[in-house]
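User: Structure with 2-oxoglutaric acid, tokens only please.
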Amino acid sequence: MQNLSPPARQDYPPVTPSQVDQFQQQGYLILENVLSAAQIERIVGRFEPLFDTQFETGIYPDEWYGRPGLSQPNATRQMTGLWRCDRTLASVTLSPAIARLNASLMGWPAARYGFDACWLKPPAAPPVSFHRNSTYVASLDPASVVTCWIALSHATSAAGTLQIVPGSHHWPSADRIRFLHAPREDYRAPLWQAATAARVDAPQIQSIELSPGSAICFHGQLWHGSDRNQTTHQTRRSLAISTLHPQAKFQPHSDQGFIFSRYRRLETLAMDESYFPILWSQDGYRTPFLADYCGDALVP
Ligand SMILES: O=C(O)CCC(=O)C(=O)O
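Assistant:
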């Protein structure tokens, strides 16, 4: 792979109060050079085996769309639950640096793993419907999540980069989990409905153009989606790492379980650290088994 981006910052300074303010007000924050070209190359090299059903740990992912030979060639490939399938990917998606970044923006003292996913949009890949990630954690209490979405290729408007509506995390929330891939209707239709309900006349969609290795962290209530990849030769790739409040537990009754309900124990509402480990804490705690499971790719 060519040298796609400058070397990543390896010191990962804490976020500043003004970055936290911008995140709280606008619902997102952009950070340059979170991953280096070498780190991106290692990550991207793991995708082909995964989508070819070769899981390094032998464990299948939680969610999987786009199968070579079965799906449309232009289908978006998305896989969720990467860390349990592949320890190279785990060394990035469980990294304390990303967890600290996500938690600090939310004002949390620690960070629990929520979900991790890759999104690979080949040329002509269809749009991804507008949605809020908080709907995916509706069975949890608190139902709060924050996502660090890292570009692994040039994330341009033409290639169908992430689109957001700044400030939309303040809108009232009544939406539910929806299927996101290749919608038949306008992929922005859920956004228009939410804007009407929030009495917002003309929501401003912003395309987030990022160089490889740069990232956007966004609030779980922020409306986002992505348009068709209009290029003929560029696959748009990204890695999305979503973090929960450290005290998150299951709600006693919820029909919004999605991935989470399969990991719910019957005798307790607590989230099991085997599946939802604590990745970073101000007091230094990190779920102990992670030390043997994978390294930390973001430590030089
Ligand atoms: O990468 C995309 O196109 C969509 C990503 C997304 O919806 C997410 O990470 O929550």
